[in-house]
Amino acid sequence: MLAPALGDVTVTDLRVLTGGASRATWAFDAHTASGVRALILRTGPPDDVHAGMELEAAALRRAAATGAPVPEIIAADNSPAALGNPFLICEFIGGETIVPKIARTLDDTSRARLLRQCAQALAAIHRADPAGIGLVASDPLHEWRHRLDEMGDTTATFEWAFRWLELHRPPATPPVLVHGDFRMGNLIVDDTGLAAVLDWELTHIGEALDDLAWFCIRAWRFGAPASRGAGGLGSIEDFVTAYEEAGGTPVDRVALRWWLVAATLRWGVICRYQYERHRSGLTRSVELAAIGRRVCETEYDLLNLLEAS
Questions:
Q1: For 116-173, how does the pLDDT look when each residue is reduced to its tens digit (9 = 90+)?
Q2: Can you tell me the distance from the alpha carbon of 28 to that of 221, in angstroms, rounded to the nearest whole number?
Q3: Is the pLDDT of residue 271 over 90?
């Protein structure tokens, strides 16, 4: 599976890095005629939620073409023939992804720099051509309404949020390549700031505001104050301004608030969905059960957002 890209290869030092909720990540060294390359393997069973490995790789290549900081793709295959599951292999990029560790290394200057770099990365991603690689358009209200209905469960707060979103939806903006899970925790950060954007399994065609708002919900501040509402790094206004200055489409601030409500509701439905995977026995996991307890947090956030709207 590596030979077409790298020639004869010997693999050493294979080690698991994470066993995530959907896909596992491994690191290894590939010894080739030209030297040793540090690589990453991601693998997991196919499902109806996440992009296939070949589609994820195609989206990464499109983003790389516009200057987004992403790992180089070595190989990707939707077939389980080689490893028992579909897989994606990319270059290893050094740095840190664990948000509390990153936060301890940042001062005001480096935090502001990282915020600008995140905005610049999103602007580059949104400039990428999403056509012709198999990406599909995704409507957030339809998608998360369907997910919630599939579980046969809801809450009064969720229903109020869905109703509010339906009644106040802003005009659609031009479709772009959407990362789908752009947030702290899915970014590699090193001494120079943002090194790479990871975890593209939720990529789709949608609106740029989808990515911008997702970065700014309370869950991804990781305990930082509301004054640093954009990823715990800085203000939402500073983030959006940096995005526009980097060539991103001008952002309607009223529409962005709608998308913040939608993103918060989405996180609430995801929390309920992850718990359902545990409760149903599909994937028994203390981690997934604990995520289910966060449904009430998102209800609190939604009530605050809707009260201010």
A1: 999 999 999 999 999 999 998 989 899 999 999 999 999 999 999 999 999 999 999 9
A2: 32
A3: yes
Take residue 78 and report the two structure tokens written for it: 């939707």
- What residues pair up with 209 in beta bridges, in sequence order? none
- 145-164: b (≥16 Cβ within 10 Å) or e: bebbeeeeeebebbeebbeb
- pLDDT of residue 96 exceeding 80, the answer is yes
Residue type, 35: G
Q: Measured on CA atoms in the order 88, 4, 1, 189, is the torsion positive or negative?
A: negative
**pTM of the complete model:** 0.94
More confident residue, 72 or 287: 72
Distance in angstroms (rounded) separating the CA atoms of residues 29 and 72: 15
> Can you tell me the distance from the alpha carbon of 244 to that of 265, in angstroms, rounded to the nearest whole number?
26
Q: DSSP 3-state assignment of 194?
A: strand
176-178 and 10-19 strand pairing: unpaired
Q: Which domains does the chain have, with CATH numbers?
A: 3-91 (3.30.200.20), 99-307 (3.90.1200.10)
Gap between the Cα atoms of 150 and 282, Å rounded: 15
Closest CA to 182 of 117, 133, 132, 105: 117
Give the residue from 154, 143, 123, 64 showing the smallest Cα distance to 249. 123
Nearest-angstrom CA–CA distance, 229 and 223:
10
CB 191 within 8 A of CB 94: no
Give dist(CA 185, CA 214) in Å, integer: 13
**How far apart, in Å, are the Cα atoms of 177 and each of 62, 128, 129, 132, 180?**
9, 6, 7, 12, 9
* Bridge partners for 39 per DSSP: 28, 91
- Asked if residues 7 and 30 have their Cβ atoms less than 8 Å apart, the reply is no
Q: Residue 308's CB: how many other CB atoms inside 10 A?
A: 8
| Adjacent-strand bridge partners of 31 | 10, 36
